[in-house]
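User: Okay, second chain of the day. Same drill as before: sequence in, structure tokens out.
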Amino acid sequence: MRNRAARALPAFALVVAVGIAVDGCATASSAASSASSASSASSASSASSASSPAATAAARASAPVYGPPGPDPACAAALKAEQTLRTRQGKDQANESALDQDFTNFANALSAAAQRDTRPATAKAMTALANDYTALVESQSGAAELPDMSTVEKDGTAFDKACS
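Assistant: Same drill. Structure tokens below.
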């Protein structure tokens, strides 16, 4: 029993580090989405100064939208999975097998998002982070080594850059 408790502490520290590393992508995506919405509102208000309703509608439809693009669909799916993990992690905190399932679900969602992504760097970053979470779960049973903290941080940073 003592050996299992000794493994749980590094695993908890790893989860906290991964959460911190992944959190930056969500913040960056929110900022990009807000900037895109503000830009769209600005374009719409300048187009509304046209003389007729038909001209206004045509101007809005053809007006270019300036600003950063919205989040990549694969990143959006990965961020949704990360949010689900955070929600489930709070609920399942006292149940180790439920936490392992939450981490497995997150790793599977990241892998699926990576397969759908068209950008190789983003797919690689998602896959690496998914592998870290898979190794974390497998390390609880002794099937794999606990992932190195610096590797997880590096993979989280690469994921942040790819999805920002």
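The radius of gyration is 21 Å.

User: Thanks, on to the next one.
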